[in-house]
Write a structure and sequence with these properties.
This protein is of the alpha+beta class. 26% of the residues lie in helices and 32% in strands. Strand 3 and strand 4 form a beta hairpin. Its EC number is 3.6.1.55.
Length: 271
Amino acid sequence: MPHLRFTTLVEAPLTVAFDVARALGRPWGAPLEEVASERPYRDVYSGGRRGPTHTRSFSATGAGTLVEERVEWTPALPGPPGRVVDRLLVRRPLVRAMRAHLDAYAAAAARRALDVVQVVGVALVDGDRVLVAQRADGPFAGCWEFPGGKVEPGEADLEALVRECREELGVEVAPQAFLGEVPLDGVVGGGAPGVSTLRVWWGRVAAGEVTPHEHTELRWVVAADLGALDWIPADRPLLPDVVRVLDPASGRPANDEGGAGSSPHPPRAGG
């Protein structure tokens, strides 16, 4: 079956990229019916037995959301005549329309993201250990989490991460690599429910000694002990990704056991 693929990097969290894509629809008039949807990871629309099928997938990256789109259709005519018609009347117009549509979509999602309060976190690694912090108050008092907090207006994610560690732990940190993103189904910073996400990197302490300025306790733990802790709901899906950083030889994929690369049920807001 003939098809075209399009890829766009959107400067927006998973939830915003997904919601804006659905709101804008697609740049052609053929009516499509939704046949599958898993917010904010994937949706599929179909025009029936001979109509086009449009599939979108959304993946978190350190730079934003990677959106992959695939459009499939049934040729109007068989053989060489069908390929000529396909190229002139389907492929070329579709490519032009999709390029313009994706440019407008990326811009709209980036604008919408400015109104969403995001949460960032960091798994600070020292050899085969990672730093965990016990919450001092709130609905998850006594539960464990990775340090972090809300991104302030005008702040980049990594700037917020460094600032939060300075405030919470009294240290300077060096972020290393993006770990994953988890949708939050609660309200963050007075925003709409289910819009914000938690984006987490792993990093190292660059200067200073960790001190619990805002937490009840800080603890360095090895991979084998992570699962026994009582985690806030937002951070638990990231544990397999953290284990892979602590023990690369384990070979565990980032999305095993509900990792942040999979599609976990959205936890309550934990930032």
